Amino acid sequence: MEKKGFFSRSKQDMARIAQIMGIVARFGFDDFVEMIRSKENIPIRPFRHKEPGIEHKSRPERVRLMFEELGTTFVKFGQILSTRGDIVGVTYAAELAKLQDSMKPFPGDEAKRIIEAELGVSVEKLFSHFDSKPLASASIAQVHRATLRSGKKVVIKVQRPGIEGTVREDLRIMHYLADVAEKHIPEAAVYDPVYLVNEFERSILKELDFQREGKNALRLRENFKKEKWIYIPKVYEELTTKRVLTMEEMRGTKLIDVIESKSGSFDKELIAHRIAEAFFKMVLVDGIYHADPHPGNILVLKGDVICFLDYGRVGTIDKEVAENIFRFALFAVDNDVNGLIQHLIRTNMLEDSGDMDLLKADVSDLLETYYSTNIKDVKIGYMLSDLVSVISKYKFNRPRELAELTRTLLILEGVGMQLSPKFSIADEFEPYAKRILPSSLNLQKIANTITTNIIDFEYIARTFPMVIRRFLKKLDEGKIHI
Ligand SMILES: Nc1ncnc2c1ncn2[C@@H]1O[C@H](COP(=O)(O)OP(=O)(O)O)[C@@H](O)[C@H]1O
Ligand SMILES: [Mg+2]
């Protein structure tokens, strides 16, 4: 990672830094800009211009609007932050989740030009038909339909012209700003900006490599080839490069439309079950999983067959680590604090400092908020991310795979709930739980816990337990008066 000062940068980077600072100031963070400006001696005039009405908006909302203004790389960054409630806090996470990844399409002729440059063959030679109007258009790529000379229908995902350069330039600047913020701005340093930008860089650079995305698709396809209830489209490797991805066109209904459909033509409960089953097989059996299963990336084909699209984010996980993480969740569901801590120590996720009383108290407090409410279902994704943020304050060796897995679990539980109010990831987990269950737990006990201490998704989503807990604690300590 680069750690250069402002003046050792290229003219182009300096100009972009100045532009970014201008936008940051415009959204009401001029104190932040001023701090960086003075620490780094950046020769720009103070910014006075403010976005109209900005002073009436909350800080998280201003951050979201600012990311939108800063463009693709920052929007993607914001989207990732939105899934790291353990670091940025739930209020920011909820606001950043609103960031939209849609962009004006670029001209079809431009897409053709890129395809030809990448594949070295003219579009006319390759396809009997090419649809210049894109089917979908997002910040990194857009998707065109075409027909191969063989008659096969395909879609081609084409990267936006110049996108990689833009992302790399923004990344350089984000590293620089994160570094300065971490050194000089304590309020920003608490969010671990250097770590966040490093993580972000890894994931976005992967998304810019379609060859990799194609390979991911092929692996998933191979792993599911025997299953009739799930389908992964074929990728045409010979028509795939770093910037162009060609695959079989799927005809189906987008999961968003399935969720909203009232016609009864879909068995939503079955679809939710199949999505969960796919997840557990990918994580616990195959060790490679689709890590972005939001409703825009899932199609439902004839016979309620599910089809995952978009393999830009794929997680790999060691089976043993996956089992240990799920065991960790099971101890939590079972409200067994001692068991949970023993398990973390045994698996080296936690260093045994001898004195675990504080941690025990914190974990008990947290689990209490899940069990004191007499409602409907334990949301394991929420519980896990809450637990992780509590345990992170101790000597926690966070498994590399944990953040991505928890994030995927959260998306999945959301999708499941939207499809069927009866959906419970814990139920779906049962067949696997039998296999990996810690000997001190038994399934009947867990089933009872789940049905008697039912926690409502809506309730948790609305109230965010961590915030409430902190609030209650402060109230208790007399720091807040009502
Ligand atoms: N194999 C496919 N068959 C049919 N439509 C597809 C296929 N792949 C992608 N699409 C359409 O293009 C959209 C964007 O593709 P996706 O891979 O999700 O790109 P992004 O990474 O920009 O989200 C999808 O939501 C879907 O509507
Ligand atoms: Mg997508």
Share in helix:
55-70%
Low-confidence stretches: 450-482
Average pLDDT level: 85
Number of helices: 23
Sheet-strand content, in percent, reads 5-15%
Instruction: Count the beta strands.
Output: 11
Report the bound ligands by name, code or SMILES.
adenosine-5'-diphosphate, magnesium ion
Counting structural domains, the number is: 3
Q: Give the N-to-C terminal Cα separation.
A: 48 Å
Q: Tell me, briefly, the overall form.
A: globular
Protein structure class: alpha+beta
How does the major sheet shape up? 5 strands, antiparallel
Radius of gyration: 24 Å
Determine the oligomeric state from the structure: single chain
Which key terms come to mind for this protein?
binds magnesium ion; 23 helices; binds adenosine-5'-diphosphate; alpha+beta; 482 residues; 55% helix; five-stranded antiparallel β-sheet; four-stranded mixed β-sheet; Phosphorylase Kinase, domain 1
Task: Explain the layout of strands and helices.
Blueprint lengths: L10 H16 L3 H11 L18 H12 L1 H10 L3 H4 L1 H7 L11 H12 L3 H4 E4 L5 E2 L3 E8 L4 E7 L3 H22 L1 H4 L3 H15 L2 H14 L6 E2 L12 E5 L4 E2 H6 L7 H19 L1 E3 L7 E4 L3 E4 L5 E3 L2 H15 L3 H10 L10 H15 L8 H12 L10 H18 L5 H12 L6 H10 L4 H7 L1 H12 L6
Parallel strand pairs: 5-10
Antiparallel strand pairs: 1-3, 2-3, 3-4, 4-6, 7-9, 8-11, 9-10
The structure holds adenosine-5'-diphosphate and magnesium ion.
Adenosine-5'-diphosphate binds next to strand 3, strand 4 and strand 6.
